[in-house]
């Protein structure tokens, strides 16, 4: 027991010496090693790592100085309530103001939905992550950047996607979905490789930005070829329908000529051509073919 007490005394003495000599080298987590509320409050007020650069209120001071150890549970409840309020506020602002503005810009520029989704709307959805990452850089906390971004990506691909799938059934185009998943996996692997190297250089940052630019280029090129193929199919279908309609009209004309030539009393025959809309005409070559009003010819006797 005496050895343990001696070790604790030495540790506390070392902490006090560090506070007096180099307070900027201490981490704010050491506040939990102190025993009294007064010591914790003084520690958070004198250590640079516990500093707060916000504009609303110093939440570290609120927990360790205003509430203290006696009301620690109350302070945590208050902090979780504030965090929930900030998340809801951020979502309302993005949903009511940012995303509609970006959607209007996309429609004004006549951007297709998939291109607008990977550019303007992606920026709108990632705006909170951008600001939190900038905050992490200004506070010299790189672990906040990577953990926040990767955690947000996991949350979106699990909770958000799962919630959307529970809302109902819908069809998703296979090739665009596989393209997005492939780029997402590739970008995540690049981030993992950079972290594994433990050093980030300018070439790494340029490579990550280049991956996103390449992704946008693939989306644009893919849509171009998709529209080109779709127009070619529609043109072939239109030519096929025109050829079929011309053949049907020729068969009808031949049938009219045969009926009139076979009957000498043309007045008694009283050929009456009645143009009807949206009817079905049966021929030797095709059955149940919908014709246009000017093509639908029916013979009747008076």
From TrEMBL:
GO terms for cellular component: membrane. The keyword Transcription regulation does not apply. Residues 82-220 form the Sodium/calcium exchanger membrane region domain. One of its GO terms (biological process) is intracellular calcium ion homeostasis. It is a multi-pass membrane protein. Pfam families: Na_Ca_ex. Keywords: Antiport, Calcium, Calcium transport, Ion transport, Membrane, Transmembrane, Transmembrane helix, Transport. It is found in: Membrane. This is Sodium/calcium exchanger membrane region domain-containing protein.
